[in-house]
Queue: 3 jobs
Job 1
Amino acid sequence: MVAEEMRGAPTPFEELMFIDRIYKTKGALHETLKERGFEYYAEIELPRVDCFMYLPATFPKNREEAAKFDFASLTNQRVAIGVCVGGTYLTNCWDEKVRLGVQGILKINHNCSIADKAATQIFLAVDDFFRDFAELRKHNVSLDVHICGYSLGGLFAQVTTVLLQDWASTTRNRVTCRTFESPGIPEMYHEISQNYTTDPEQFWKQRITNFKSLPNPLNTVFQDLGRVFHLKNTDHINCSTSWVIKCVAGTAKRLAFWTGLMKGFGIGSDKESFNSMTEFQQKCTIGAAIALELGMDLCEVVRNHDVALMLGCFDQKSGTLLSSCCIEMEQWPVYENFEDSAVRLLQSVSQGLMVMDPRNAGLHTLFLFGGKRGFVERKLRRIPGYLPMPIKAKAEQPATTMVEA
């Protein structure tokens, strides 16, 4: 076996496929890994999520195979290995998934021991592998450790990448990470991340890349490290019967409100609306705030968290990321607490009283402003914190780095 035959680093499309297969069967996972030139190596036990380590298919998997392997052909080379961290297994009920998912992630902000434990388990697995194959150090072979994670697994992947940098520098290995629909990481780890270099922003942009779908309750909890890309797949946003009804009802409701106000009944109506809104404010969730800001139902918003939708942003034959579906972000919205969500919820409600505003569902948006997809697009651009990278900055950043990061 010679170095040229060794499989290189996994692509974002491949990592997303591996994550998708976690939720199917082990047979499907193993088959997909082999098709892509990799092989399953070991399971890593993590809290709440599934995790496994994989290697190039031609690399030895045990000491018996190592005895027959020509490590000298890898002298001064780098070997790419991968760690894949899935998301939590939750109920199929969307509102329950939102409640459990967000609450579980927020708990980590107050008790980071879960994330620390996950990072420790991944570190032990990777370090044991590096030490078990002493031939790697004998022939000056370094590891490129590629960690990918989805949802809560994305949080674990980012935290692990941060905490493994000391190990990487002392062993001359490299640890990088890609996440999909990550909730971000708690502030504590952002503070730790500042200790590794004099230019933390560039340092982490070279090591961590985050891919996100439309803002939803599970990808707007904390700030992310590294680069953030919005993968836009709006195939599921269709002009359904319920959407038409919502547009008609929206116009009728706003006209009724303003007609009543003009007739002198506005005070009573306004007081009643205020009281009901205050009650709703007390019960609101992050999901409700995002759903209202995007003008979508909660089920639609949470569906954006699906792996399948993100896979649709890649060419299914070549695995290339479709440029029309990808926007690099300078900033991503964060709903750090329920109080913040309540304020934004009320702001959306007040804006919703404007009859012809193109951000409000009504007869005008149904016929004049590009249908439901155009409507969601306009609402998206108005969400505080949603800030695409300026065109000039994009030009300075080669497009190929998007998939190589």
Job 2
Amino acid sequence: MNDIVSKLRQGGGTQSDGAVIKLAAVRMQAEEAVLQAIIEVESAGRPYDDKGRLIILTEKHVFWRELPQILRAKAQRLGLAVKKWSRANYNGLGGSGSDARWDRLEAMADLHETAGLRSASYGGPQIMGFNAELCGYPSVQEFVLAFAENEANQAEAFLTYLEKVGLLQAIRTKDFRAIARRYNGPGQVSRYAGMMQAAYKRITGRSAVSTEQTGFLRLGSEGYRVKALQERLVALGYHVKPDSDFGPATRRQLIAFQVDNGLAADGVVGPITSEALETAVPINAQPGGTRENMTVKDLRKSGSQTVKQADRLTNLGVVGMAIGAIGEMLGISHLTSNVKTLQDVTAIIQQVSASIDPVFALIGDNKFLAILAIGGAVVFLAHKIKQRRLHDAKEWRHIG
């Protein structure tokens, strides 16, 4: 039985008197009613159940992602983890405050405490455990214990999260569309922004009027103008998907463009940024901007993590090929199961098996030939990864 989950199950959480919102509004230089409206919409659920326990919801697909690879198969067998989200993941959990939810969290934490705690959402805001650091906590353990203590900690963490993800300016200017886009994701911007505006009107008795300039493209914007912006950024060498949705990825690339061109890095397409976009020269056409002579060695020297990981794959593949070749030459008929290098190479089989299945058909049961084939496939895969990274770098697709 996990100690932290056992402590959480004891309950005892206390409700908030709202003072934390007043203090946060002063600190953030924002209108208190805006923060109240956001929390009302995004924290619509109760912070605690009838026993004073945190409202929680576990996520199997997140647990799969958070677990060390070596534990994923076991978690899957136990019914605790799956690769992808589906509604079926919640079967048997019951409603809000059910013991079944706590039983599942405890089983997850028993298998791996940190991964388990990071794979559930908590309290009124239903913030995922993996966001603990963004909420101002050094560990997910401290995060959940603070949430269990009182509702004020939950509100403070939620507002800290909004600040950390770059929404302070949107809060100050009552830009509810930007807030909804960042917190609720694409597809529900209008719905959640409308709910926040309605809550603000109920709280204050007046409609929310954003102090942002109307007509400017920003986080939460959508439509053909956003797609045109994205296509222009791509043409200039900034890597973003033209999908008509001004999300965090588009904002990051726009800010990169603004920084590169000496503009105010606010992530908003105002008149000055719009003019700069029209007259800008693509990065690879600027003086000193060519990367035609760049090599994988240059990327390695610059500290590319992609190349670093691909080099590790290359080394594993070469070792696998060597073991396979030596074993075949010596006619060894069995493998030593505790050789770590063989385990590392074998762990990559799933990633490359589709491309070497025809080879396995020819190999039959010869294990050393199989390792030789796997090693060769891994080396080839690593080479392709490095070449792709080099191509992207030459096209300036990795900015910042």
Job 3
Amino acid sequence: MKVLITGAYGMCASAVVDLKEEKVFLDCLAPTDHLSSEKFIQGDVGDAKVLFEAMEGCDAVIHPAYKLPDALENWEELLYENTENTHQVFKMASYLKIDRVIYASSNHALGRCEIGHVLNLYKQGHSYMISPNDIQLVNKADGVHLPRHLV
């Protein structure tokens, strides 16, 4: 299995670097030593040509790439960097017939943090009104619901 991992230098992506599968890494930052033995593509997830090159031939995508908001919580920047780029990832995966995409999010995007049991919203057939509690989580919630729109 060949897997594309976006945001190669982020905290979430670093957790999957040791996967046994063949990996392709995509990040806007220049490659460093810890990924030197892997295929690395430097570029923007939002660039369709770069994304196509990175995804072509992959069987799955792990998409943890996410830009954290600055102190000003610039909505336009968040919208492009996160919502639009995530939409691009899902659309390209659909175009290339990649049916396994993992989007790294958080139950905090839904405005809830439960410990010790499974929330009803994770159970099949349950509908749930989201209630994110800051602008970053509103943005993350977009990514959680984009796949439902595309299938």
